[in-house]
TrEMBL record:
Lineage: Eukaryota, Metazoa, Chordata, Craniata, Vertebrata
Substrates-to-products reaction catalysed: L-glutamyl-[protein] + glycine + ATP = glycyl-L-glutamyl-[protein] + ADP + phosphate + H(+)
GO biological process: cilium assembly; cilium movement
Ranges annotated as biased composition (Basic residues): 186-197
Protein known as: TTLL3 monoglycylase
Amino acid sequence: QEKKIFMVQGPYPIIRHELRARGWVERKLPSMGRQLVQHHPLHYPWLPAEEEEQHDEDPNSIHDLMSYLVRDRLPNFIWTNFLDATDHELLQQDNVVNHYARVDAFTTKEGLCLSLQKLPWIEQADPNTFFPRCYRLGIMDEREAFIEDFRLTAARSLLKLALEEAGDTPVRTQKVPKSAKEAGRHRSHISHPKHSTARPGSPLYPELVEEALEVCEQHLGVLRHQDIDRSTPSPCRTCIDWDRFLQQYYHVAHEGAGLVLTKQQQKQCHNLLQHLAEQLPQLDMEGKLNVWILKPGAESQGKGIICTTRLEEVLQLAWSCTAPSMQMGRWVVQKYVERLLTIFGTKFDIRQWFVVTDWKPLTVWFYQDCYLRFCSRPFSLCHLERARHLCNVSVQKWYKTSPDQDPRVPPDKIWSNKQFQEYLAQLGQADAWHQVLVPGMKAAILSALRSAQDQVRFRKGSFELYGADFLVGEDFQPWLLEINSCPTMSPSSAVTRRLCANVQRDTLCLVLDRKDNPTSSTGAFELIYKE
């Protein structure tokens, strides 16, 4: 009569306990409920069966008696792993449900990629300032755009490598042959002393820097819209042999081959990169090795993700990994954040929770606690295996800590945000958390939600808890990687055991207690946006 009947599907003992403590009665579905949890594709396979079972009550308990009495009543509150669009049609109007329909517009890699492409048409925001550029390989135009991006990034990377080597290693001035000196009286550019980055016995590519300069100059012109009134070809459609250029770039970037550049070219590289930085928000974070990350468009838990530095590998892998029933369009390729902040030489990312309690008007609550996830091996762009580059707990649980890992990395590979703030203070960057990281994460989340708002099927009475994953750049800027529906609540450490329990309790405070008393506590949730 008080409409306090709830149903929980999935491994959520905290939710069940908190609702019972509030006087709610559980409607159990012993067969169908268990079947849905076990066989739904989003069921948590890493959670031991006994952990799901251990919270079941004694058959003779008062809770089971009450559950039996309400077996024919529709639940007023539903918390489940997953609820698809058809399930929503069966719900009563006044039910409270922990999911919205069609959120794949921002909770899948493919959906987020597409939604953020539309962001500049929705508001004055540039996704390139917080989301590493991303392409859907199954869409021909996007695949062509990725190929062009890869080539342009290689050209920029080459300029960075040339400047780095010329500045960081002893400069060797090549002896100019007598015939060349004589020719230099008529062609002065030949007589400039040249800086060589060659290692003994490695090949030199005297034309490579000049070609990279030409490509980048043309690209800068396009970025500045200098091509509006005249027909300017794409920088990647010039007369350069791109297959040869990329092969030579690979030799320089990954195999230690040398470059030859003049003093004049060195100055050109420096100036050109400065001008490009004004136009390209990701110029700094993209690094100089042109690493990209290939991801299945609708998978989670790090499944199928591969890092690579070769264009042909990206395209081949996308085709070879595609099952006959699966289109190439389900794959996305994204620029890897090469210049990232590491802790004790190890890569980490941030899992940040937030709740949407309404889509019309859009209402977003940001959780003030979060946690960091570490990799098992030291960070290196020369080794692209998953243990060094994928921070997902579901990936890292399969790897033992590397012997060369810094012993200060926590054994369970988890830190709280409080521990991270203490670390930042030790670096002399105590303000970075509240002044750069948190505002950046909030802005990225809001932009992602607004970009997908028209795609989500809105329903009054619903809410949803999400987990956003961020990397941190060397400049402490957060980069949004993905947003997860149904973020795991299964504890993998002492930190997550505490924080996951807290965020579930505070979510119930937010969506239930606040309905009866608008002044009641929302725990660590902070209202950051209401349209």
